[in-house]
Amino acid sequence: MFGLPNLRRDSRGFTLVELLVVIAIIGILAAVIAPSAFRAIEKSKVSRAVADLRAIGKAAVAYYADVGDFPGSKGHPPNEPLQNGSDPGFVRKPDSSWVTDSGAGYGGNLDAWGGPYLERWTSRHPWGNVYTWNYWLGYPVPGTGMTVSKAGIVTMEDYGRIPRASLEAIDRIMDDGDLSRGYVFYQGQIGSGYLQVVVATQ
């Protein structure tokens, strides 16, 4: 008669060598997988920022088509404080009491406002700082020698949060890949300034 093998568990557990092998394997996997995961996360942030900027650009063109002018820089109702990152009139209908960062009123025919042009104003970009709307008259496009009569510009505040590779990727997708010139332009030293993106012109 054949006996059954003894199926009792060995109560000794893992040896130190076995634990070290497992830790080494986990470390190797982390070293291989982590950079790819971080690249994928950064790529998705760039894609989201580009989508946000394009949506704001389309909203600005639609607003202009209805009203005949762009919203004012950092525009806001008089009973709200001036702040970067607030809706300038793409979501809420502005009226004649709205003012800009310079204290000027809004231009165009505000009664013709047909919005909302955006479902919501995305105040924060994927790296955690704010998108701010600015409206320039006679905007000199950096490094090109051109001047645009009216420009709707979104600034993405950086201050060290956005990696240079991501700034360059946004520029490549939306302009010419050169952060020192064109419609996508970095203002200030990399890491201590902000990205200016011209999203609409007239």
Automatic annotation (TrEMBL):
Entry keywords, A to Z: Membrane, Methylation, Transmembrane, Transmembrane helix
The keyword Iron-sulfur appears for this protein: no
SUPFAM superfamilies the record matches: Pili subunits
PROSITE patterns in the cross-refs: PROKAR_NTER_METHYL (PS00409)
Segments traversing the membrane: 20-38
A Gene Ontology cellular-component term: type II protein secretion system complex
One of the GO biological process terms: protein secretion by the type II secretion system
Region (Disordered) residue spans: 72-94
Record keyword NAD present: no
Protein name per UniProt: Prepilin-type N-terminal cleavage/methylation domain-containing protein
Species assigned in the record: Desulfotomaculum nigrificans (strain DSM 14880 / VKM B-2319 / CO-1-SRB) (Desulfotomaculum carboxydivorans)
